[in-house]
Amino acid sequence: MFSIFIPEGEPWYSPDRRAVDAERDIVVQLKNLTGRAPGKAFVLTHGDMTVPFHTAEWDGTDPKTGDWYFASEIVSFGTSIYLKGDRDVPDYAFGNDEEARRWRRIAAEALLVFGRDYNGFKYPQEQVRVMLNDELLTRWHFGYDG
User: Fold this and answer.
1) Region of residue 68 (phi > 0: left; psi between -120 and 50: alpha; otherwise: beta)
2) Is residue 33 within 8 Å of residue 81, measured between CB atoms?
3) CB of 20 within 8 A of CB of 3?
4) Three-state DSSP class for 104?
5) What is the pLDDT of residue 99?
6) Distance CA 116, CA 128 (A)
7) pLDDT tens readout for residues 53-74
8) What's the rounded Cα separation, in Å, for the pair 36 and 95?
9) Which stretch of 32-41, 66-75, 100-109, 125-134 has the lowest confidence by average pLDDT?
């Protein structure tokens, strides 16, 4: 399960913050914003694998409860135009579609913990959602209690 790591002695806004799943040796870190369109560019690392991806973000209203929520969706996975140039992160080619789907789901889980700015756990889980396969998911879908 993912948690937020902030290096000791660093402020909450440290550029070295990251979402970490120590058990699975996976790190997801914000690297850039996406400009005018709301969204962010991230890098997922696992061993020597580095996967760039970027998201779109929006605010929504739950149709059943009328409550506000924040949502994100991975719009590019394995490449990101927002990580080119001075932040050049090479594209990553998955071995097959199943491998790409598995890692995309892991990245989606990390986004729920990330929230808007490494603060996903500060919100009730129904207020932070991620779109995956045309379904809005919360931390509950990944086994998190709160």
Assistant:
1) beta
2) no
3) yes
4) helix
5) 97
6) 9
7) 999 999 999 999 999 999 999 9
8) 33
9) 32-41
First CA to last CA distance, the chain: 12
- 106 and 83 Cβ atoms separated by less than 8 Å: no
CA atoms within 13 A on the CB side of 113: 23
Contacts of 6 (CB under 8 A, 6+ apart): 12, 14, 16, 17, 118
Place of tokens 């969204």: 39
Q: Do the Cβ atoms of 17 and 2 come closer than 8 Å?
A: no
Q: In Å, what is the CA distance from 96 to each residue of 21, 93, 100, 103, 135?
A: 23, 9, 7, 11, 23
DSSP annotation string for 7-63: -TT--TT-TT-EEEETTTTEEEEEEEE-TTSS-EEEEEEETTEEEEEEEEEEEEE-T
Please tell me whether the overall predicted TM-score, pTM, comes out greater than 0.90 for this model: yes
